[in-house]
Amino acid sequence: MTEDDRVAMTLDEVAALSRAILTKHGLAPDHVEAVTRTIVAGERDECASHGVYRLIVCVNTLKKGVVVTDAVPQVQDCAPALLRVDARGGFAQLAFEAGLPQLVAKAKRNGIAAMGINHCVHFAALWPEVEAVTAHGLVALACTPSHAWVAPAGGIRPVFGTNPIAFGWPRPGAHPFVFDFATSAVARGEIELHRRAGKPIPEGWGIDAEGQPTTDAAAALAGAMLTFGGHKGSALSTMVELIAGPLIGDLTSAESLAVDAGTGSSPVGGELVLAIDPAGFLGDAAGEHIARAEALFANITGQGARLPSQRRFEARLRSEANGVRIPRALHDDLQALLD
Ligand code: NDP
Ligand code: PYC
Questions:
Q1: Could you tell me the residue ranges of all domains in the chain?
Q2: Catalytic residue among 18, 25, 43, 50
């Protein structure tokens, strides 16, 4: 793609565009702000599948009437180390923000805490949330089912969602250690971006409706995606279905897809977020042991390997200094959402 095929934008312009689109399509102001923070973060960190492209997905989901546009999340304190946030049919972002202070307070009080978010609409990457937890000096784990698009290892029919797992570890004086990936070979958004660009997908991402390997993005979207790491990704994806589905009284990916009834909207259901305070195990010795973790990171980077999120943090610095460049075709599609 040449520079002519791209449109340069500052991060403030990206935020203004996101606000304008979401407001035009009826989302209440507090949700507009929370969703915009996530969209801008995705674009800023060059996570194309979960940046401004997601506005198209959000608008489709809003138009289909799947989102309660003015939902007020309800935080319920259900046990010393547990809380639930009922998103009441709204996007997940505001529900997460509503529950975060209690999650942090409970983790600091008890050493560990878990937050179940229920009845939300989920379209987003999870790293903004685990980063928000690590900002309080806590270790974080988050996961959510999505829609049943992914076949189990050894099968050919979709059962699992793309079911991301994100983990965060606070690091003194540095960005946290964070990974965040789908348990499918790749996020569905990445295959959608290949389809939009008319590009083939690598082998191993999907199979067609007959269960045959395919490099055709549209065929894989119509058939089934594959898990990463064969049976290992399949088992992790099952775990996400269980602990962010039935365990918290919410939907599996198959149930979410059934609710969708062919509208092509974002998944509905729950999310589980865990927070662990190192001081819970270690008391005053926490700092000393957290410092030991730095040797582990040094042993990774010291041999030329990179840490997950390193690319993202470097992109963040670039975007904050120079803004971002959006593919022109995507920019045109976003402008059309304002007509
Ligand atoms: P990727 O396969 O691109 O991998 C993501 C993770 O792996 C990132 O932490 C990334 O760091 C790291 N990584 C990539 N390459 C390397 C490398 N060479 N060395 C070390 N680390 C590396 O992501 P996915 O396509 O699986 O997922 C993308 C996003 O989609 C996620 O943020 C996820 O939350 C989101 N998603 C959301 C869903 C939902 O239902 N809400 C469903 C599925 C996915 P870096 O970013 O620095 O490259
Ligand atoms: O890219 O797989 C995905 C996805 C599903 C829900 C949000 N993102």
A1: 1-63+309-339, 71-184+227-308
A2: 50
